[in-house]
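User:
I would dearly like some help making sense of a protein record. Take your time, and here it is.
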Amino acid sequence: MGVLLSELQIALNDVVVGCLEAADGHEAAAGMLEDDDRLAGRLRDLARARRAAADELGEVIRALGDLPPAPDADLEAARELASLVKAALSPDQRQTLMQERAAAEARLEACTAQALARADLPEAARGALLGLFASSRDACERLARGAPD
C-alpha cells in the first residue's frame, strides 16, 4: 500500500529530485570536459551546491513527516547517456554540454518556482527555495552563454 503525499510534499520532492539530477548531470559533464579545468571545476562546484540544496530541502521534508525522494536511477542513467552521446557526436561538444546543463538548470528553476508559488510553503523551505531559485536562474543564464563564471 502506497503513502499518499500532499501537494506540498510532491512539489518539494520534485525540487529535491531536480537538484540531484542536475548535480549528477553536472558531474558527468565535468568528466567530459577535463581539458577545460575552469569549466569542469565550475560544474563540479555547481553539482556540490545542488546536492547541498537537496540535503537542506530533505530536512524540511523530514520535518513535514516524509522521507526525501531519490531520483529514478534508470531514468537518470538513460538521460545522462543520451546527453553524453549527443555531446560526443556534436561538432562542438563543449557547447552541446553547456546547453544540456542550462536546460537542467531551467527545469530546476521551473520546479522551484512551482514550489515557491504554494501558499502552504513553510518559511524554512521558502528561504532555501528562494536561494536555489536565484542560483539556478544565474547558472542557467551563464551556462546558456557558455560562460563558466
User: Anything to note?
Assistant: The mean pLDDT is 83. The radius of gyration is 16 Å. The helical segments are 7-32, 37-63, 73-89, 93-116, 123-145. The CA atoms of residues 7 and 118 lie 9 Å apart.
